[in-house]
Amino acid sequence: MSNELLLSAAIFVVIGIVVVSIFILSKFVGPQNKEDKSKNTVYESGVSNPVGGTKLRFSIKFYLVAILFVLFDVEIIFMFPWAVNIRELGFLGLGEMFMFMGLLFAGLIYIYKKKALSWE
């Protein structure tokens, strides 16, 4: 084996031992507050005693709106580099961006026609 491979293996082993020992030491040396039961209770949105079970079903509309938000929000990721390099891309880049935005607009029209964003 080469010296570099042996050295890198030793470094990984030492890092692993250090990380494991830090976790073990923090368990024994760190503060332990087992008397305070409020640390283990649920606290959500200002409600300390929630009402209802954890297996509550949500409408599929919430997930659909979330996925659509992510889908249409990603377009900004593609539009920003285009806006920065618009002069270098020229008319070909402009045409490609209009085609991209047209496809997104067609998708939005499709979603609107399917009434995916209407709440009842």
How would you concisely characterize the structure shown here?
This is NADH-quinone oxidoreductase subunit A. This protein has 120 residues and is mainly α.
Mind sketching the topology for me?
Blueprint: H1 3-29, H2 60-84, H3 86-113
Question: What can you see in these coordinates?
Answer:
The chain has 120 residues and is mostly helical. The chain folds into 2 domains: 1-30; 58-120, NADH:ubiquinone/plastoquinone oxidoreductase, chain 3 (Methane Monooxygenase Hydroxylase, Chain G, domain 1, Up-down Bundle), CATH 1.20.58. The chain has 3 helices and no strands. It has helices at residues 3-29, 60-84, 86-113. Helix 2 (60-84) packs antiparallel against helix 3 (86-113). The protein is flat, with a radius of gyration of 27 Å. The relative contact order is 0.05. The mean pLDDT is 83.
Proportion of beta-strand residues: under 5%
Mean pLDDT equals: 83
CATH-scheme architecture of the largest domain: Up-down Bundle
Sum up the overall morphology in one term. Answer: flat
The CATH superfamily of the largest domain turns out to be NADH:ubiquinone/plastoquinone oxidoreductase, chain 3
What letter string, H or E per element, gives the SSE order?
A: HHH
Quickly give the structural class: mainly alpha
The value of Rg in angstroms is: 27 Å
What number of domains? 2
Distance N to C terminus: 69 Å
Oligomer state of the chains in this structure = single chain
CATH C-level name of the largest domain: Mainly Alpha
